[in-house]
Design brief:
Layout (H helix, E strand, L loop, with lengths): L2 E7 L3 H12 L6 E7 L6 H6 L6 E5 L6 H9 L6 E4 L5 E2 L4 H10 L7 E3 L9 H9 L3 E2 L1 H11 L9 E4 H6 L11 H10 L4 E3 L5 E2 L7 H4 L7 H17 L4 H25 L3 H11 L8 H10 L7 H9 L5
Helix pairs in contact: 6-10, 8-10, 10-11, 11-12, 11-13, 11-14
Length: about 325
């Protein structure tokens, strides 16, 4: 089974070489690496131009497409059925990563849209450990929104995911206007269309560093209105399936709104009132909210969303709507 590896890159020369070297060192050799540089100015383009392996295909964007626009471009260029995302600051876990990945994919049914690997590797919180204990390996499309609503963006880092290339195209690709939450929106949208699979196999090593997007985004609550778009869709779908609206609102208030409110208060204390204003406007005023008054009560009662998350999650997961 040949496999495509897609790598969007932008001004990450300090990490990019290790990412590419980890591909070149794989024992499984039937791959193509498709790289798209999004207008780097740090020497990345010169380095990429020096690569000579014929399996590596490099594209230079004339103008910046943004992370998800760049990913959409990459998926339009792949040659193979399965594509593994490898961000430019991550790398393959070891020399046999691709071999393990291909072995799993070769055993999956053809309707599985994407595979989330490394699943137990980042279970570093009580909620993540609970997630690992209750999530099935096969997530059927009719249950996908339930699990995304309870646990958030289950795939996590983009480098945790491999996907059928045609599924990305049929789903319409990533929304490039959702810079802060385009991955959550896309995986949840694709998950309600087709089943997906969760595995603990180690494929990639996710690098943590000060310059990564996850550590610098949302300083003023920019992600908050984008989260509303995602949660609106999940809420509407769960209600249409017969899940109790009040219990969903409680779950979302504890699991999302309270945590965002906590971040907004911290930003307010640093002189950034925009964040808390966005929480009040975009989340308290949403259909999936309990409203501002009850929202604040839940915030204090749950210590800013830090407790009762698992208890509420268990209640929602026990529901069996007709």
């Amino acid at each position: 089974m040949p496999i495509s590896i897609v790598m969007p890159t932008y001004n990450r020369l300090e990490f990019l070489k290790q990412a590419i070297d980890s591909v070149l060192s794989q024992t499984y050799s039937d791959w193509e690496l498709v790289i798209s540089d999004d207008g780097s100015k740090d020497g990345t383009r010169e380095y990429l131009s020096s690569l000579t392996d014929p399996r590596i295909k490099v594209h230079f964007q004339p103008s910046n497409l943004g992370q998800f626009g760049n990913l959409n471009f990459l998926f339009s260029q792949v040659s193979h059925e399965i594509a593994q995302i490898l961000c430019d600051d991550d790398y393959f876990f070891d020399r046999d990563s691709l071999q393990r990945l291909v072995t799993v994919w070769s055993e999956l049914p053809p309707d599985v849209a994407f595979l989330r690997s490394n699943h137990t590797a980042d279970a570093n919180s009580a909620l993540a450990r609970f997630e690992s204990s209750v999530l099935p390996q096969f997530v059927q499309s009719d249950k996908s929104d339930l699990f995304f609503g309870v646990f958030g963006c289950i795939p996590g880092n983009l480098s945790n995911v491999s996907v059928r290339s045609e599924a990305v195209k049929r789903a319409g690709g990533f929304r490039s206007d959702l810079f802060y939450a385009g991955d959550f929106e896309f995986w949840s949208r694709l998950g309600r269309m087709r089943p997906w699979y969760i595995s603990s196999i180690r494929v990639t090593q996710i690098r943590r560093h000060d310059g990564q997007v996850a550590g610098t985004q949302n300083a003023k609550g920019e992600a908050v209105p984008q989260m509303r778009i995602i949660l609106d869709a999940i809420y509407d779908n769960l209600v249409s399936k017969g899940y109790p609206p009040g219990l969903i609102r409680l779950m979302f208030t504890v699991n999302y709104i309270s945590l965002q409110r906590d971040a907004g208060i911290k930003a307010f204390l640093r002189g950034r009132g925009e964040y808390l204003n966005r929480v009040s406007r975009d989340l308290d005023g949403s259909t999936f909210s309990l409203g501002s008054g009850l929202g604040w009560l839940v915030f204090f009662g749950s210590l800013g969303g830090r407790i009762f998350r698992i208890q509420v999650a268990k209640r929602l997961l026990r529901q069996n709507p007709a």
